Each structure stands twice: as structure tokens, then as C-alpha cells.
Amino acid sequence: MATSTSNNGEPASDTGAQFLSAGYVVRPAEDRAALDRVRQLTAAAAAAALKIALPNDIGAFLDTIHERVKVADLNDFRLAILDKLLADPQFRPAYFACGRKLVEEVVGNELAMQRNIGLSVQLPNDDSSLLPLHSDTWGSECSPFEVVLWIPLVDVVRTKSMFLLPPEPDRQWRARVHEFMQQGTEALFKAVEPELAFIPITYGEVMLFTPTVMHGNRVNREPGTRWSFNMRFKGLFTPYANKKLGDYFSPVSVRPASQIGLSFDMPGSGDG
Amino acid sequence: MADATLANDTRGYRGYITSQPVNGLAYPHKVQNLVVRDYCRRKGLNFYLSVTEGSVPGADMMLNGLLGDLGSLRGVVVFSQFVLPRKREVRARLYEQIVIAGCELHAALEEISIATRADIAAFEAPLAIAAWLPATPYGGKFPLDRSDNAVVPLRDR
Asked: What ipTM is given for this predicted complex?
């Protein structure tokens, strides 16, 4: 049930209340220069993969990338970009700077951050890279304590964006998921479709959402290509599922008191 | 890794895999070797065939043997940093041994490494935190009951 108070009775912030009721919040990037850097690094990696000079209008270049990349080459293209971004030490700090305070407000200020980068490039009318309706926590890989910082590099709307089922209808439908086991996820999608929200986001904004609720994407029927990143965060000391600290998450903020606690040794027993 | 001053150094990086569970999960040797070899290929490390630790809990005989061979190696590539000894002070001695020998320690699964003392804190942080997770809510692990396709926290069963 959505609530406007935290479970210890203190008033939840507007952001917290909205996150609980809608399952997501959209906010302006906290560091616009960092967001522009993320986009610039991505566009430069895309231009390098295409062996062309980086065009002046980065936004238009990304939005019309379907004019230069065939569906058959899309995954190799995407992986080439990711290789470059993963090797760039500026990328993850810049990404975190786009929504750090937002993540801290919703999650906490001792955080673990996903080590790899999720990048989605969805060409118009391409059905090869869809993410069907799902909840990350239904599998064994994801902990429900995770959130996703989702950042588009172009304006996204309707099917160019992602969809999400708000927590309250998600709770109701989750109890009925077993009814769709034989029919599959498309049947479940059709059932929940009237209650889904496609989230419009303008370049310059970021979204934080809970991947515990049903979400996914559809064939992009808009004229431009969607570019979006997703990166998971969670409280450093909250439960992990199979996406573990070390191979999947790395600590990004450990407060001094925790640093002391982690390295504290009890007094020796004196017996050697 | 590739360093101009070491260009003529033909020593390689010895792989190290284990027969014990790693951070709560058991990985077949074949999978561990695939991860180690792929890591070495991508990082341009000259891979030497892995040694395999035994299955006795806490056994580290092969690892200790490896440390005795550091003089003939450029470094060690362990499958995961979680195959290292559980005790912090034992790991600290191991890091020191490797650095003093002028070698490197790589963890293939986590893609993290120690080449100098400055790298130790970042390498050690996940291990130090994970050691405390059993003392946090839910024992630091999201519990699932998947027996009937339901996903139910243990507290609700």
C-alpha cells in the first residue's frame, strides 16, 4: 500500500512518497555537465564504432542512429560502445553524479553500485532487442532492495520509453501471475496493459525506479532511436541475491564509522 | 600488465581455481577456468595453467604453494577474490608477499587487481564488507522460497 509516511512514523519526503506510490521518480539531472559528459562519451564511442567523425549535433546523431546501423549489426555496435565506456574511468563517476542525491534519498548514503553498464539502443520498429514484461526480483538474481537509475540520452515518450506497473496494481497482479504460467508473458502484458505507465522523460532528466514491479519495453514505434542506460544501486549493508558484492556490485560510499567497524579488532586475549 | 620495462619478461600469470564453494556458490572447474582464461585473454596476460585447490573447507595448500613460486611468475589470477583466505590478517600478509615479490594479484570474476600497495584498499573493500553481511538484516542475503514458484521471504513463511 502506498504511504506518505515512513514505517517509523516520520513524514516521508515528497520524493519518497512518490517513489512508494508510483514506483519511480523523474528528476532533473543533478549535475548537467556530468550528464552531458555521459552523452558525449557515448556518442564518441558510437562514432568510433562507425568509423566516422563525431557530428556536431550529438542529440540528432543519436536519435537518427537507425539511419547508420542495421538491426543485424546492432548488438555488436552496442557492445563496442560498452567496451569503450567500461574502459573509461570518467564514465561511472559521471553517471553517479547525475542522480547521487536522489539515490541517497531513496536508498541511503552507504551505497553499492553496479560494476557493469546496461545500455539499451532501440531502433524504430526493431523487435530484436526487447525486454518483455518482468520483475527483476522474480528470478533469483536480484534483491528487492535494489533500485535502478535509468538515464535516457534522447527524449523518450510512449513506446520509445519503458513501461512500469505501479506498486499497487503490481501487488494485485503479482498474486495472479500463476494464472499466466501456461500462456506466457505476452498474455500477462495484455492483462495488465491498461494499468501500465509509459514514462515520458526529456533529455536532461533521470529516473529512479524499483525493479521489483513489472516493467519492460515494447517495439519502439516512434520515429527516433531510444538510447538509455540503466545502473543498479542498493544499500551497501542490505541483503544481496545472486548479484553479489564483488562480481556485480562495488562499494561507492563507505562512511567513516563503517570503515572503523569493518576493520575493528577486539582486544587480544593475551595468550599469544 | 604490459609494461615497457617488462617487455622481455617471459614469465606468466598462474591461474588458481578451487573445489570449494565461492561466496556461497559452487562453480564447476570448467566454468572457473573459462572465466580465468577469458580474463587473461582480454587483459593480455600470459596465462599459465591453473592450479586447483582441494575441497576440504578452508584448505589453502595449493595457494600457499603458489606463493612460494612467485619468483618465477609475473602474477596470480584467482577465479574470484572470494577464494582468498577468510581472515583479514592472512589476506594482508598475502597481498604484502605478492607486492614485495613484484608480482600482481588478479581476481578474474570481479575484474579487480593489485599491482601496488595503493590498489589494496579497493581490492579488499568488498571482502571486508561481505564478511560483515551475515550480521546484517536477513543475514545479508535475500531469502527465497521457490518451491512452488512463489517468491516468499523466509520471514513470511
From this structure: 0.74
The parent domain of residue B140 ranges over 4-156
CATH number for position A31 = 2.60.120.620
Range of the domain at A194: 15-242
Query: 3-state class of B152 per DSSP?
Result: coil
Dist CA A5 CA A235 (whole Å)? 20
The crossing angle, in degrees rounded to 10, of helices A91-106 and A14-22 is 90
| Beta-carbon count within 10 A of B110 CB | 23
Other beta carbons within 10 angstroms of residue A127's beta carbon come to 11
Distance (Å) from the alpha carbon of B117 to chain A's nearest alpha carbon? 17
Instruction: Give the whole-angstrom CA distance, residue B113 versus residue B157.
Output: 42
Chain B contact present for A237, CB below 8 A: yes
Give the closest-approach CA distance of B47 to chain A in angstroms.
21
Residues of chain A with pLDDT under 70: 1-12, 140, 269-272
Q: State the alpha helices, DSSP H only, in A23-143.
A: 32-50, 58-63, 74-87, 91-106
